[in-house]
């Protein structure tokens, strides 16, 4: 069933009116706060690169990459807020804004995924990681992430294909919600990264807790556990609801859910969860805080090859 036919039989006017107010209340502070925090984060981690501390170079590259993706999302929010209220928006500009929005979302997801893998390997195999990791390799991984998300964004170009009356970030074509487009996005863009992040985070916490009675620096390891737990919580809270909303909307657009009230609730849930996912660019600051705190006390914990100094006693 097309979106046009849906709108004839089921009105979403009340949801749209409510979301206009919600978006103003959420997007404006998200934009202001996210812009400030991510600029400060980029500046802070860049200072560590300038100091050329080998323990923190790789970590800083990852964190700058994450902050750049968050900043990209922040900068797309004002355009998203305006274009989503205008019918028949200028298609090339609308497509560009939609592309930037989804590139920043999935770029953040992939960056967090690689950070989680890197952190787990550093905790589990500190000697191996200390020899294999280098700033050039980490920079190469970040470049691969950018290529992946830009190539993966190609379906965005057909979001409004052959549609005369559409609104940016709404009224997406039926082909957008086809199984061949939706499931690769859902599986490779979220489910697989979430599984990897969940596994690496849980294993890292398990390893650190198991070492409690054998370490001389439990306070330092407890800080590591908090960093891992906060990072995982931020990821789940930010991205799980919106991808659940995408799945429910997929069921609607493919005729599995036809009851009007259910459709209205799903579109409301999807819009609210997208607002929540946008706030991820501010929630990431908690991760930055813990990492920078570790830097300030000159102890490599999270992603640093200096982990060798901290954990060598357990593998002798």
From TrEMBL:
Q: Where is the G-protein coupled receptors family 1 profile domain?
A: 37-288
Any keyword Amino-acid biosynthesis? no
What would be one Gene Ontology cellular-component term for the protein? plasma membrane
Q: What is this protein called?
A: G protein-coupled receptor 55
Cellular location(s): Cell membrane
Q: Per the UniProt entry, what species is this protein from, by scientific name?
A: Moschus moschiferus (Siberian musk deer)
Location (main, coarse):
membrane
Q: Which InterPro entries match?
A: GPCR_Rhodpsn, GPCR_Rhodpsn_7TM
According to the record, the segments passing through the membrane are: 22-41, 53-78, 90-117, 138-161, 181-202, 223-246, 266-291
Name any Gene Ontology BP term: positive regulation of Rho protein signal transduction
Please state which protein family the record places this protein in: Belongs to the G-protein coupled receptor 1 family.
Question: Which lineage is the organism of this entry classified under, starting from the top rank?
Answer: Eukaryota, Metazoa, Chordata, Craniata, Vertebrata
Q: Which GO terms describe its molecular function?
A: cannabinoid receptor activity
């Amino acid at each position: 069933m097309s979106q046009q036919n849906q709108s004839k039989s089921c009105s979403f006017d009340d949801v749209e009116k409510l979301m206009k107010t919600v978006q103003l209340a959420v997007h404006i502070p998200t934009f202001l706060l996210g812009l400030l925090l991510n600029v400060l984060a980029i500046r802070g981690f860049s200072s560590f690169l300038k100091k050329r501390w080998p323990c923190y170079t790789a970590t800083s590259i990852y964190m700058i990459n994450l902050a750049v993706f968050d900043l990209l999302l922040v900068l797309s929010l004002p355009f998203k807020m305006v274009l989503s209220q205008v019918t028949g928006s200028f298609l090339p500009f609308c497509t560009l804004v939609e592309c930037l929005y989804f590139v920043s979302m999935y770029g953040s997801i992939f960056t967090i995924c690689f950070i989680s893998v890197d952190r787990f390997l550093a905790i589990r195999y500190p000697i191996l990681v200390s020899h294999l990791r280098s700033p050039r390799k980490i920079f190469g991984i970040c470049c691969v992430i950018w290529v992946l998300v830009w190539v993966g964004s190609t379906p965005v170009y057909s979001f409004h294909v052959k549609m005369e009356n559409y609104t940016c970030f709404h009224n997406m074509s039926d082909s957008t919600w086809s199984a061949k487009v939706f499931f690769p996005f859902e599986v490779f863009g979220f489910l697989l990264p979430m599984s990897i992040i969940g596994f690496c985070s849980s294993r890292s916490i398990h390893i650190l807790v198991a070492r409690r009675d054998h370490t001389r620096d439990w306070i330092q390891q407890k800080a590591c556990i908090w960093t891992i737990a906060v990072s995982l919580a931020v990821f789940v809270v930010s991205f799980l609801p919106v991808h659940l909303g995408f799945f429910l909307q997929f069921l609607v657009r493919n005729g599995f859910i036809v009851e009007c009230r259910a459709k209205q609730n799903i579109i409301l849930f999807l819009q609210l969860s997208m607002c929540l996912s946008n706030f991820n660019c501010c929630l990431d600051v908690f991760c930055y805080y813990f990492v920078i705190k570790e830097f300030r006390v000159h102890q490599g914990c999270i992603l640093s090859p200096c982990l060798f100094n901290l954990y060598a006693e357990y593998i002798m």
